[in-house]
Amino acid sequence: MYHLANECYNNGKGTEKNLEKALYWYQKAAESGYTDAMFNLAVCYIKGKGTEVNLEKANYWYQKAAMQYKQIMRSFLKHLIIHQV
Fold first, then answer.
1. Domains in the chain, please, with CATH?
2. How far is the C-alpha of 60 from the C-alpha of 66, rounded, in Å?
3. CA atoms within 13 A on the CB side of 66
4. What single-letter DSSP state applies at residue 13?
5. Distance separating alpha carbons of residues 76 and 59, to the nearest angstrom
6. In whole angstroms, what is the distance from residue 58 CA to residue 43 CA?
7. Cβ–Cβ < 8 Å for 49, 25
8. What HEC string does 9-49 produce?
9. CB contact at 8 A, 34 and 11
10. For residue 11, how many other CB atoms are within 10 A of its CB?
11. Residue 14: C-alpha distances to residues 10, 11, 25, 37, 70 (Å)
12. Which residues contact 42 (CB under 8 A, 6 or more apart)?
């Protein structure tokens, strides 16, 4: 879902660029827990790409992405500590 949104519809690889479809697939991927999609969805809402500017939705998705990244970094740091890398 994410790659369909990002590569195809956002960047126009293999198909015509279509920001509305990119937004749709970012939304699907974000709702499935894909962190990069959450971030890109927030960017769409803050810049009005494929939709009207919506700062509330942008903030919501930025916060969800930040929480996901925070959890990923905690796990990574825990791994480093355990394995003394």
1. 2-83 (1.25.40.10)
2. 10
3. 7
4. S
5. 25
6. 7
7. no
8. HHCCCCCCCCHHHHHHHHHHHHHCCCHHHHHHHHHHHHHCC
9. no
10. 12
11. 11, 9, 16, 20, 34
12. 57, 58, 59, 60, 61, 62, 65
Q: Which two tokens stand for residue 20?
A: 């509305």
Instruction: Tell me which residue of 51, 48, 46, 84 sits closest to 63, measured CA to CA.
Output: 46
For 26-58, the pLDDT digits (tens) are 999 999 999 999 999 999 999 999 999 999 999
CA 64 to chain centre: 9
Band of the pLDDT at 85, cuts 50, 70, 90?
A: low
Tokens of 56: 């509330």
Q: What letter does residue 85 receive in the DSSP assignment? A: -
